[in-house]
Design goal:
4 copies of one chain form a homotetramer. With 165 residues, chain A is of the alpha/beta class. Chain A has helices spanning 30-36, 58-70, 85-95, 116-130, and strands spanning 3-9, 14-16, 23-25, 44-51, 75-79, 100-104, 134-139, 142-145, 150-151, 158-159. In chain A, helix 2 packs across helix 3. Chains in contact: A-B, A-C, B-D, C-D. At the A-B interface, helix 1, helix 4 and strand 10 of A face helix 1, helix 4 and strand 10 of B.
């Protein structure tokens, strides 16, 4: 099975600058995480960019879309900041119909000894291997369709959009 | 969706006894792991036993089978030692046809700061939510059918059984 | 031996707010750290304040001085932010001559799985038990006298002040 | 200040073999620990042996003694298994009078995410820099003279030998 991982950044991959006390990006930790997790899934990893979810531009999203389109793999996992994950998923869903795409991320940087990044990577990798074509978001152990999910800004959890009757 | 987690023990849940230098069991860490992972999947967790995979008896396996049968949930995740995981999966597969059962475990105790336990829990929880009825093993980021998997004793990785032509 | 620990905050005790991505204070981790470290040193711990080193005021420093004076213990360990640690040490040294006071801190929060906080706590606790009366700073495994130490803002390491000839 | 670290093994440096479930030795972690701890103490580290404290022989102890004698540094830190730490300290005390020697160790391997190893290293490094010549044991945040300390086998804590009146 051909499987691609595109790294886009997000809290998932942030580092702590001990001089300034600020968060920043160096290299992605996805390879290291998969190794420590003893994953034997064959994946091809590409870092498209290392950006904060709140600063992703429309141009950035076009780059993600372009790469998802042109890659030969039909199963794609994207690690992405959580704040605009749904927006990127929406663009991908509008233009790509024949691939299984799963976006995931984390609320706590992996380098802070967080647990949600590694757990989310495990669940996203599972979902992307078995789900039918479509664009999905894997967060908090669950999978959501791109058109029925939102991040609750108060709790930081992803949830379905409540439908009005 | 109704989802059950049965805890059977295994390396996953082992502790280090700092007086004797030996590994042993206390309580399961599954609840704590799901909380740290920020999982919002609704699960009902029951500890059936806390045993080393190499010491599981046929009676123990009957207890696991009995509980899988009688529980009302039709999606069941089992944390189990890796050495006899396939043997337990085989018994379950012979007697249960209408439920989705996923067994998982770890090569390194969660309390040792391992990465494979949390990652495997994430992937197993994903697989059990979406796979069709049947008995599966989720290890190393992959999912295997109970009748085509073995643990490689030298490497500790799970792999398909090589079929002779 | 009577030993007091005064908690003043600093990076040592910072937490990560996963909703805002900012660092903040909750309770101190000193008790928990000493327990995990299996310390059997008898200490009495008091949290004076939980403040960022850069925001400590002269009034705050007076509170620290007042508490160091009035406490019955003659050996005092202070966990303090690194940026103004020397300034606080200077005030204490000017007013207290008959007690052994050791200030320490960390460059990475303990909750980020840092190593310097726990290591510094171990070395500071050692120094405060055996050094003669005076005010000292314990950082980077070393001990410095209050009047011959500065934090190098570029590297984050503490070092002696270079004396001109 | 000239400071030597001799590595002798012990729980401090043990690894977990995920295939056999047993503990074993690879390389020491002392260098890595000092780096993560941001220590700037100048040390020269030598691994004399990597052995379990219970299997140390009289010949092994002679090697430790020989190296402590011949090294030019007069301040020596030894990482050693806890079970026979006092026995080695006794031999060293009988033959070396003019050097400051501090032995330390851990109850939980550093690779298990333990806290006592790093904390003990911090306190031992502090004690060895400031104590007068003699042989000392640094465990549980405290320092003991070689001739008034024992490991409590039930609790794993080091304590003074109770003197009879």
């Amino acid at each position: 099975m051909a499987l691609k991982i595109f790294v886009v950044g997000g809290t998932f991959d942030k580092e702590y600058n001990l001089i300034t006390g600020e968060l920043y990006f160096e290299e992605t930790h996805v390879n290291e995480m998969l190794k420590l997790a003893r994953s034997t899934v064959r994946v091809d990893i590409r870092t498209l960019m290392m950006v904060d979810s709140t600063t992703i531009t429309d141009e950035d999203r076009e780059i993600i879309l372009h790469n998802c389109k042109k890659t030969s793999e039909d199963r794609i996992l994207i690690t992405h900041g959580t704040d605009t994950m749904v927006k990127t998923a929406t663009l991908l869903a509008e233009h790509i119909k024949n691939k299984t795409i799963v976006l995931t991320g984390a609320m706590i940087p992996y380098t802070f000894g967080s647990s949600d990044g590694l757990f989310n990577l495990g669940s996203a990798l599972a979902f992307v291997q078995v789900l039918a074509p479509g664009v999905h978001i894997a967060m908090n152990g669950r999978v959501f369709s791109w058109d029925n999910v939102q991040k609750n800004r108060k709790t930081g959890f992803f949830e379905e959009i409540e439908k009005e009757l």
